Amino acid sequence: MIRKPGRFLALAIAVVVVWMLSFLFIYFFINNWSDRGAFGDLFGAVNALFSGLAFAGLLYTIILQKEDLLLQRKEIELNRTELKKSAKAQVKSEKALTEQVEQMKITARLNALNTLINFYNIQIANTSNPEEIIVKAKQKRREVIKEIDSLIQRVSDDEILD
User: Fold this and answer.
1) Region of 110 on the Ramachandran plot (φ > 0 left; ψ -120 to 50 alpha; else beta)
2) Domain tally, the chain
3) pLDDT tens per residue across span 128-143
4) Could you say which of 7, 78, 117, 123 would form a disulfide bridge with 137 (CB–CB 3.0 to 4.6 Å)?
5) Is 13 within the bounds of a domain?
6) Model-level pTM?
């Protein structure tokens, strides 16, 4: 609800103007002081009425503020719940990203090892190389294949643990 301060100001000015007009009316149209006093006493009940209405307005304002506070507390509780959910989702996302980085490292390593195996296969297939180079290439190729096997085994073990 948007509150407009201009309305309150206009209402306050109107009340002051009516009050001044009543003073001028009493002062100029009622000549002696005893008649003025009797005329003023006629409004005692109206004063009590407006005082009661003002008090009722005050109570109503307090009730509205209480309801506003309850709504704010509910809103804060909902915000806390959403923040907890968001934090949990962020932790899950971080874990997934970490796992993805690990998988990318393994993939890069496997690609590098595959390139090495291809290099050693080319050396072995090249018949113009001396026998000792071919033997070394076969030995290194076996070592690379063992490393690939250990990487695959580690990935399989990790999947079993999850």
Assistant:
1) alpha
2) 1
3) 878 888 888 889 889 9
4) 123
5) no
6) 0.49
